[in-house]
Amino acid sequence: MKKALLVALAFLVAPMTAMAADYKEGVHYTVVNQGPATAKPEIAEYFSFYCPHCYNFAKSEVPKIKASLPEGVTFKQNHVDFINGNMGVEMSRAFAVAHQLKVDEKMETAIFSAIHDKKQHFTNRDDVKAIFVANGVDGKAFDAAANSFMVNAQMSQMKRATQNAKISGVPALVVNGKYRVETGAIKSYDELLDIAYYLTTMK
Description:
- The chain is of the alpha+beta class.
- Helices cover 54% and strands 11% of the residues.
- Helix 4 packs antiparallel against helix 5 and helix 4 (85-100) crosses helix 8.
């Protein structure tokens, strides 16, 4: 009986091992940092509020990632500023302001919806401020955060991380600060997450 259980277990484990072994550097992921990985395992998403694919990813996959993260793995997000000129930079600022004011999820949903569902056109920081105020954020609190050292530092960190990971398209996932998942080789978002989770075990 014990032998039969071991054989059955071997059949269960074998496909998983084979699947992991099928993920190849240069095909399914790219090493973007030759130095050490992050001290703790992490999955970092790179996105833009102006990207419709990022909006779909935010609705369907980000909740899935947050709910199914392997133990000890953290999830973080970085807004890229290279889409839509100056407003790309302002949207990075908006993301950092939302983080500082602890209204991340509310404002992420509101901004995505305003751009893609309501077709709202943002032209300057005042337009961004208006949507924060419409969602319950005090205008003075927005102004103070938007000009704060912490927000500027977060924007600089996101820009530096984007450049270091050689991000040219979004949504994108970088694992452990070292491995960028290559979307061209995947067939579904589920496979994208499988590769990302697999890479969290690598140093």
